[in-house]
Amino acid sequence: MRSARALIKGMAATAALCLALLAPPDLSAFPDAEKVWEAGGGPPFNFGLSSLTSGFLLISDRELAVSYGEVLELFDMGAFDLEPEQPPSLSVEKETDGIIGGIAYTGASRKILASQQDGDLLEFTLANITAEPIVHVLAEEKKLGPLAHDPRSGYSYVSDSTSLSIISY
To answer: Global pTM?
Structure first.
């Protein structure tokens, strides 16, 4: 009995070692599809960001939200590409323009909150991501930055860089 266990452990160790030694160094898998790229390269996607990022949210194993400038984009991490449906562009006409200072995820209600450097808080609903966000004016003409959301209480805490304070919403 003892020798059978030792034999099985030895075979498992040998199989793991062979896999580690024989697998090509440029082979990767996440989460359900193998992707191969040039040796020394990175994942086969390009975020295409045009300015400094203000937030990253890993919503699930497959969903990533990224904010930069006046842009919020959603990425499919399984396909290494943009999600087919994206939030609308921020605009002066809809009064949603403003540089995004930070983003937070609400959890069960599946919303993304985005603080802006003009005092607004935008609320995007993932179930209807192409719809215009709801605009909440928290601190008119104040520079809002990083934020956090507590799903238990439902409160969001937004940093106000102008008055060096935290706004509870």
So the answer is: 0.74
